[in-house]
Amino acid sequence: MPRTAPAATLESAGIFHRDYVLVTLGACALVFLAAFESLAVTTIMPVVSRELDGAALYALAFAGPLATGVIGMVAAGSWSDRRGPVGPLYASVAMFVVGLLVAGTAETMPALVAGRLVQGLGGGAMTVALYVVIARVYPAVLHPKIFAAFSAAWVIPSLVGPFAAGIVAQLLSWHWVFLGVVGLVVPALLMIVPALRGLHGTRDGGTGDGKTSDGGNNAERYTAAPGDMSAPVPRKTSASGRLAWAALAALAVLGLNLSARLPVAGGFVAVAAVVVALIAVRPLVPRGTLTARRGLPSVILTRGLAAAAFFGAEVYLPYLLVERYSFSPTFAGLALTGGAVAWAAGSAVQGRLGPRLDHRRAVRTGAALVLAAVVLVLVTTLLGWPAAVAIAAWILAGAGMGLMYARLSVMTLALSTRDNEGFNSSAMSISDSLGGALSLATTGIIFAAFTTAAASFAGVFALTALIGAAAVAVAPRVAGRR
């Protein structure tokens, strides 16, 4: 995509400048549809399970796509680094559509789960391919704004997705919740096609020298100083080796989800699954990620810790409001809506501030807000404070995630070169997915381990608070020493 305007003009015009408007709309539409489908499935799955007599496979319908998504992320990252993001994007969208068609036409629960597994594979790959497209198409001065738009595109479905899915399932059939998305994915992809022309990997004409397509004059791209530990440290594992490790990590996530069903060996299986997942993820992320090395490794680790703390607690907040405070499910869900709106607002604020808000300050502030929110919910649970405190706390958590998430995406691309944009983007997405998946599985085990509801909720929020504290501790290390 040619960049015909100076950086100052592009920044003032934003992501809807004539050079970027179509790719902005198309990319945001793909993110929106993926988010809508995910939230819609959560709404209709009880109906699907009852109609298809699939209670035994209910959990797998959710855990499966998360696990196969890790494999898709690794495959798309390796492919993007070798050949550019065009092929991976087309293939991932095609796989996502195939998964929707299989699930939408399923007449048995195993068939629906199979479709969901394919969906997860395509959805994970699509996320990584889109990140590489952003790195190649937009100048870095616009990265905070496009990632803010992605956050909004993910948050908006949380406001309308469950209601719309319920209406479609009631008036037509749950099948159309899957099939209806298919007709919208193709037009969204077509809007991006003009921007994909000429985007190649380093072996097909890319410079491979870390420069952006505007000749390397983009001041936001990262330049490592001698001895700076924030410089990217790629793994040397082969593409096939990374796929094998990704498959092992996916199996570990599934094993952790299923461990609660094993009354005798469940604890052993859970611990083994966590250990295997951590071992398997090492070749999939930059060297030093699990030890919080400064720079890119800590960026990736902070992303996973933030996801683990936020989503691990969010799942149980409506449950707490229903169980402890006798909220109806509809009103309990409004707490999540408030957090979603705050996430979009926080993301918009950081996008508007751009370089005036230092990356490290945004990440540290966001991590502190998430920790404070989870601690407030924990204290509310322990001391019986009014429900309004927990609801307000979650608005605070959403604002923190909005400030932090987009900036972590920006930093990942800024600390990447053309040689490893795909690997680093997949590492960020894998950290996201595995962090959330491991947290959700572990909190589920903790919740079931206690005999009273009060102790169960306290255990869940205590664990997520500890994870949030770890995110606060690692956040200052996202940038090298000044």
Note down, in words, how this protein is organized:
With 482 residues, this protein is an all-alpha fold. The protein folds into 3 domains: 1-201, MFS general substrate transporter like domains (Growth Hormone, Chain: A, Up-down Bundle), CATH 1.20.1250; 237-284; 288-482, Growth Hormone, Chain: A (Up-down Bundle). It has 16 helices and no strands. The longest helix has 32 residues, at 21-52. Mean pLDDT is 81; it is low at 202-233.
Task: Present the secondary structure layout.
Layout: H1 7-13, H2 21-52, H3 58-83, H4 86-104, H5 109-137, H6 143-171, H7 175-196, H8 239-258, H9 266-281, H10 296-314, H11 317-325, H12 329-353, H13 359-383, H14 387-414, H15 421-449, H16 453-474
Helix pairs in contact: 2-5, 2-6, 2-7, 3-4, 3-5, 3-8, 3-15, 4-5, 4-7, 5-15, 6-12, 6-14, 8-9, 8-15, 9-15, 10-13, 10-14, 10-15, 10-16, 11-12, 12-14, 13-14, 13-16, 15-16
